[in-house]
Amino acid sequence: MKSASVQAIIRALNDSGVRFLVAGGLAVNAHGYLRFTKDADLVIDLEPTNIAALFTSVQALGYRPLAPVTAEQFGNPELRARLAREKGMQVLQFYSDAHRETPIDVFVTEPFGFDGEFERALVKDLPGAGPVRFVRLDTHPDEGSDWTTAGLCRRPAASASARRTMTELPAEFDDFDWQLTTWEGSRREQLRRWAELPFERVLAALEEMEDLARALGSLPRDGSSPPQIFP
To answer: Fewer CB under 10 Å: which end of the chain, C or N?
Structure first.
């Protein structure tokens, strides 16, 4: 995770007016628990115009979705639901060669009422990027949203074959490894990419995580285990 990359992402999202919440390791750091993370987890308002703004803003930084999904397709709730159901898609991952240490994972579903959480979120200012809204520590997913309350982690998905229906998805989806769009697949892909980095870049990224936590005004809480704010 690179501090400069996080600043660039947040600044781009704010400049484009994207409605988003930060979850995962970055949110844990914002709440004062120093924890290293390899990606930026985002819960966004899944309205088509907001999705289009997200795609435009991150593409300006060189980010592209790992899966063959366009902004128009991701903005289609029926297609998004089919990808989640038939392919087990949980996140849409974005990678950039210019920001290799900082991939972005965007939730495919809203695990809670977005508007309410957006209003109640922890808000902090990130110097050089603007305000950031973080998922609260006591946030719980909606009942029936397929998210557990214990640890706020996604339930293991059934196998793709068990979810297969007679509905045909677009042909361009056939040749992609959809396991990469699950939480475990995303984690494995990020570990693989990190393993390819020179060690000095990994060390620099570790140092920058602490710098980022301090920039957010969060002092690490020694001796306590960090909570999970979604994977």
So the answer is: C
Cβ burial 58-77 (10 Å sphere, 16+ → b, else e): beebebebbbebebebbbbe
Domain boundaries, the chain: 3-215
The 10s digit of each residue's pLDDT in 9-58 is: 999 999 999 999 999 888 888 888 877 888 999 999 999 999 999 999 99
- Note the pTM of the prediction, 2 decimals: 0.83
What whole-number distance in Å separates Cα of residue 17 and Cα of residue 8?
A: 14
Give the C-alpha separation, 90 to 191, whole Å.
18
**Residue with token string 């029926």:** 78
Fold held by 3-215: Beta Polymerase; domain 2 (3.30.460)
Phi–psi pair at 48, nearest 5 degrees: -55, -40
Cβ neighbors of 120 (< 8 A, separation 6 or more) are 136
Q: Encoding tokens for residue 217? A: 């005004």
The neighbouring-strand residues paired with 122 are 134
